[in-house]
From TrEMBL:
Alphabetical keyword list: DNA-binding
Statement: the UniProt record of this protein carries the keyword DNA-binding: yes
Domain spans labelled Helix-turn-helix: 9-55
Protein name: Excisionase family DNA-binding protein
GO molecular function: DNA binding
Species in which this protein is naturally found: Haloechinothrix aidingensis
Keyword NAD attributed: no
Length: 62
């Protein structure tokens, strides 16, 4: 059930899901491939952005 809220995850959680380094996730952010926000001093990835990125990788591979 969707509440319309955007879920935020840590850079490390995104890196773990992609099986890459945190540095690689930061590069994806800087390249505009992942959306992120600052919460205080912390960087958080917009979950939908990560899901869209993964879906795009799957489409490219097909």
């Amino acid at each position: 059930m969707s509440t319309g809220r955007q879920e935020l995850i840590t850079v490390q959680a995104a890196a773990d899901q992609l099986s890459v380094s945190r540095w690689s996730v930061y590069r994806l952010i800087w390249d505009g491939r992942l959306s992120s926000v600052h919460v205080g001093r912390c960087r958080r990835i917009v979950r939908q952005s990560l899901d869209n990125y993964i879906a795009g990788l799957i489409e490219e591979a097909a």
